[in-house]
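Work Package 4 report. The design task specified in the project plan requires that, given a folded chain encoded as structure tokens, an amino acid be chosen for each position. We show below one input record used in the internal validation round.
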């Protein structure tokens, strides 16, 4: 897994830089020498951070696929990396000049698992901060996801975490207390550059 994760981070950077250099007209092919496990189906997110200084890393883009039944992990990583750079509606398009200041992180997702509870107080027994990512869903169009590293980075407790994943789904923050709202958990294998285009570690 660690080797494959490093491969995906390097591939994500190649995909982004290729698209930026070609003015978004190039189709990125799937490498024929990729590790075999990357041709399985799996959810994945690609996150870009812009390094301001040793203490401040600002989010610059984050796009992914929760489940990709018609796409392999490697295909989803390529698409998500490009989308994070040029199609995240929260940010302007990344420029090639910025890439020397940007670190890339790839999170490979496990299959989301519905947390079955009889009342909302039981969620505390099923969610571990830093280990579990969350999905809140009320309908097909009300669905939000937060990666497992987000509550750690934001220093949220469990209550804040549940509130924010509901907000991400376009729901009132307290919606997780309503049993009509489904809460799923998943784990993420996180690989990222320690510095722009630098060494890659499993986090």
């Amino acid at each position: 897994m660690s080797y494959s994760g490093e491969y995906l981070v390097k591939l994500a950077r190649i995909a982004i830089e290729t698209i930026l250099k070609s003015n978004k007209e190039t189709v990125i092919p799937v490498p024929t020498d990729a590790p075999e496990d990357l041709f399985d189906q799996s959810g994945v997110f690609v996150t870009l951070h812009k390094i301001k200084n040793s203490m401040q890393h600002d989010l610059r883009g984050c796009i992914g696929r929760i489940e990709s039944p018609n796409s392999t992990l490697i295909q989803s990583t390529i698409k998500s990396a490009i989308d994070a750079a040029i199609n995240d509606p929260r940010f302007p398009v990344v420029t090639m000049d910025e890439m020397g200041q940007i670190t890339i992180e790839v999170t490979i997702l496990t299959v989301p698992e519905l947390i079955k509870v009889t009342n909302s107080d039981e969620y505390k027994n099923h969610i571990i901060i830093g280990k579990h990512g969350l999905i809140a869903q009320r309908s097909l169009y009300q669905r939000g996801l937060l990666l497992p590293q987000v509550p750690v980075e934001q220093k949220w407790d469990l209550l804040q975490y549940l509130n924010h994943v509901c907000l991400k789904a376009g729901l009132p923050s307290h919606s997780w207390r309503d049993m009509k709202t489904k809460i799923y958990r998943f784990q993420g294998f996180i690989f990222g550059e320690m510095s722009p285009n630098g060494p890659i570690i499993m986090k």
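Strands lie at 43-53, 56-65, 102-109, 113-114, 132-139, 142-146, 182-193, 200-202. Validation will be extended to a larger panel in the next phase.
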